[in-house]
Input
Amino acid sequence: MNEKTLLEAVVLAGELMLVSGAEIYRVEDTMNHMLKRSEYEQTETIVYGTGIFVTLSDPNKEPLTRVKRVAARCTSINRICLVNDVSRHFCEGKITVEEALRQLQEIQSPKATQYDWLTQGLGYVGVSAFFAPMFGGSLGDFLAAAAVGVCLAVAAWIGKALKFNDFCFNAFGAFVLAFSAMTICHSYPGLNSDTIIVSAVMPLVPGVTFTTAIRDTLNGDYAAGSARILEAIVVGLAVAFGVGAGLLLARSMEGGLL
Amino acid sequence: MIIQVFSAVWAIAMFSILTETPKKFLPYAAFSGGFAWWAYLVINNLTHSTLQAAFFSILAVAFLSHILARIMKAPVTVFLIAGILPSVPGAGIYRTVYYLIQGDQALSTHYLISTLHTAGAIALAIFITDSVVNLVHLYHEGSHARRN
Output
């Protein structure tokens, strides 16, 4: 087996899982399982929230090491599933290391997303609409949250098209949703603006990241855990900043333009 | 309650689109989320404690996720994330930072503590389930078993 190709495939598998939001122990576990097919005596993997280190060592061979900096991040369960399948097939000996690497590169390509922009927009609208009743909203709140969700979906498309970074993307989305929520509540009194805003920010806020961070910490991955807690705080900051700016603008326009 | 659970199922189905859940698992993910919110509401009615409701409902949904993962041959994460989404403290994090920016320290601290409580309860419930499942693996299949 070509150990260099194996190392390449292992690092790529780890990177794909890490950027897709998998827990650290799962990333390390998957990589270690794939490395069991190596002929080297000792293999070691370290995964942090922002980087991956893999070393293969053997008394009789040159050691091999790869370091990978991981920056981009999003939740993609589909990728976690696909990488899991590739690693499973590879460990069972069903596919060669070259085939595994090729399949992983296919997963990495942006074409692998399975929902088009329209379905994703529907996702934003649905999440903000259906969270409103769960927070005790009325039928009116439900409809208003759906309308705000449409604005959020448009903001998300713009953000993606202009290639905003994470902070700007979240802050911009939050700004648009807060402003549109206040505008709607101003035109239709009787709606609960707090419920509408809280349900509309649900697609943006990092609840799962925060919980995963505590799970990583409980699992003993302290470095990754604290990195993820900080990530959650920064995302929360971006969202709160955007909502604050949106509310401020809406209030200052009251009595004037609106 | 029916309206709440119904909205939870649809909210999680829509959220699963945003988290790129594979199409074939969408109904199961939505079911997992709806079940979690139903359990949360029932336990909250019995105990009047959101903390206990979060802990026990996630304990149940984590076991359900392990069972579903076994049947479907998929990673546990698929069903677990969907299951924790309704009770995860996303709004709490937003409110903590929002009131911090607004300069209202008392409300900010209040939401920070409740966020930490809820996230801690959820994480602990998942951790306990994972540990138990790993022990079962260890005794029944040897230590080579793959963690799902």
Q: What stands out?
A: The CA atoms of residues 135 and 143 of chain B lie 9 Å apart.
